[in-house]
Specification:
Elements (H helix, E strand, L loop, with lengths): L4 E6 L2 H8 L3 H4 L5 E3 L5 E2 L4 E2 L3 H15 L4 E4 L13 H9 L6 E6 L3 H12 L7 E6 H4 L4 H12 L6 E6 L8 H14 L8 E6 L11 E6 L1 H14 L6 E4 L18 E7 L3 E9 L8 H10 L11 H10 L8 H21 L5
Parallel strand pairs: 1-2, 1-11, 2-5, 5-6, 6-7, 7-8, 8-9, 9-11
Antiparallel strand pairs: 3-4, 10-13, 12-13
Helix pairs in contact: 1-3, 1-12, 3-4, 8-9, 10-11, 11-12
Length: 356
């Protein structure tokens, strides 16, 4: 399978729109993993769903509008709604069955036999061509991991060549890179199934929660990118590909934002190479406070590391906002901008040698 980039995204409009406006070249290399969020405020309908089926249907509607390519879907954040009468994977499959959209379910070993039963039920509804096993760092250090994953795969009844394997390190500390990289390399080399999987991806995160970022100008190191390069270089020497994955321009944790009870600050996140630059303003209280996005966009356009107006859809919007050629937008607009630029930047870092 071709090398790809795997961003782990929440099922929100900003992330989906960021994918929609990628160039075709970038789309060819992006294989997103969506975490379906619990029922929360929806910016499009301006309400919070009361039924999990309605909530998922809204996600599917946005998904079909923004992305027509294969994607992984993880429903662990809404797993409490799954029972004998309702299964979110079966429900999603029923909505997409006639759409020719390839949704690949993500499963976790920690869910045990319940996952085995769910996959068996899903097979009754659709021709399941592949799945994704997502392993956490806590899973990987368990003493019985090797025996557990063998039993897990056996009980799934799915060929290794149809299984995508994702090792998700979350927001681990990547500062002691050599020691940690050696541990991860040793773990991956210990997997008997490693070279038989359909793909193998290493995921990590550096971005802090937005509430931890102070107003003004902030630079955040992308330590995981360097860490990934160390690990992938080891396997490249053995002619084996480890794909890169991250959480885009947010921290891994899920946080429910309720605009009826909370306020947020203006913020623009911009990937500049080995760092992120974050321009953060003040609280958004009324229409006049949204005008600060013009000044924040101008800060980014004046950066020495600015990629240029034509680099991505996001960069065009940054330029137009900075020059007052467009309105200031809203938080969803700037979420789209942050992710869209980041996806394009990662593409340029990972696949530059493959471009025409």
């Amino acid at each position: 399978m071709s090398k790809f980039y795997l961003p782990i995204l929440k099922s929100k409009l900003g992330e989906l729109s960021a994918l929609r406006y990628l160039s075709n070249a970038v789309k060819e290399r992006v294989f997103p993993l969506f975490e379906i969020t619990p029922m929360e405020w929806d910016n499009e309908s301006q309400e919070k769903s009361q039924l999990i089926s309605d909530h998922i249907a809204k996600f599917i509607k946005k998904f079909k509008r923004c992305w027509s390519r294969p994607a992984f879907v993880d429903d662990s954040l809404i797993d409490s709604f799954n029972d004998d009468d309702f299964d979110s994977y079966v429900f999603i499959a029923s909505l997409l069955l006639a759409e020719n959209v390839n949704i690949i379910p993500v499963i976790r070993m920690a869910e045990g036999m319940n996952t085995i039963r769910r996959i068996a039920r899903l097979k009754e509804h659709i021709p399941l061509t592949s799945i994704c096993i997502r392993v956490s760092i806590e899973d990987s250090i368990a003493d019985d991991f090797d025996a557990s994953i063998k039993a897990f795969i056996f009980n799934l009844g799915i060929d290794l060549k149809d299984i995508h394997f994702v090792l998700d390190l979350g927001n681990a500390n990547f500062s002691n890179q050599n020691r940690f990289a050696s541990m991860v390399i040793r773990f991956l080399n210990s997997l008997e199934q490693l070279r038989s999987f359909k793909s193998v991806t290493l995921v990590g995160a550096d971005f802090p929660p937005t509430g931890n970022i102070k107003s003004g100008n902030t630079y955040i190191d992308r330590a995981f990118l360097s860490f990934y390069r160390t690990v992938s270089a080891h396997f490249a020497e053995k002619l084996f590909t480890i794909n890169y994955g991250d959480y885009g321009v947010v921290s891994p944790e899920y946080f429910e934002f309720d605009p009826t009870k909370m306020s947020r600050s203006a913020i623009i996140r911009y990937t500049i190479g080995s760092q992120w630059y974050v321009a953060k303003g003040t609280k958004l209280k009324d229409s006049s406070t949204y005008l600060q996005y013009h000044e924040l966009a101008d800060r980014i356009r004046l950066l020495p590391e600015y990629s240029g107006d034509s680099f991505s859809h996001a960069d065009r919007l940054i330029s137009q906002c900075a020059l007052r050629q467009k309105g200031p937008g809203n938080p969803t607009t700037w979420s789209t901008v942050g992710f869209n630029h980041h996806f394009t930047k990662v593409y340029s870092e990972l696949f530059a040698s493959l471009r025409d």
